Task: structure prediction
Amino acid sequence: MKSTIERLREDLDAAKLRDPAARSSLEIAMLYPGLHAVWAHRAWHALWVRGFRFVARAGSQVTRWLTGVEIHPGATIGRRFFIDHGMGVVIGETAEVGDDVMLYHGVTLGGRQREGGKRHPTLGDGVAVGAGAKVLGPITIGAGSVIGANAVVTRDAPEDSILVGVPAKPRARREGPDSRAVLTAPEYFI
Result:
């Protein structure tokens, strides 16, 4: 298991990989609200799973006020998760986010029903979600998939899919760039 310092370095490296505007680890650590939200989520999630639910929810609301990113403390977030320009991102309580996932601003990982249980999406490893996209309900987006800006996704998608439109329909990705470098290949421009 990695130490806290190793995890922080891993997050900084993930930001450098995904954001061409990133100049230094210091700049990222001090000025990236998406990263601050992820770091705070780890603390609130630890309290949540230990039963300190009110404190965890209160802390997550303070983080939301400070960063503009709302991550429910019950959400499960993987390693090297990066939120670029995080304002307006919402991640619901039962959402599950894999490793090496990237979200842009305005993304919602939300629910569609009021019943209890699993209500929010699961994103596999290496998924990239474009600005303003809405991924709704207890669906699974397969590893390596890319969701275009402003897409509305309400159905499962297999691995290595491209999802665009309202409602979004998956199609197979062409061989090419790793989604961790995200949305830079011409085939992903919308």
In short: Residues 179-190 have pLDDT under 50 and may be disordered.
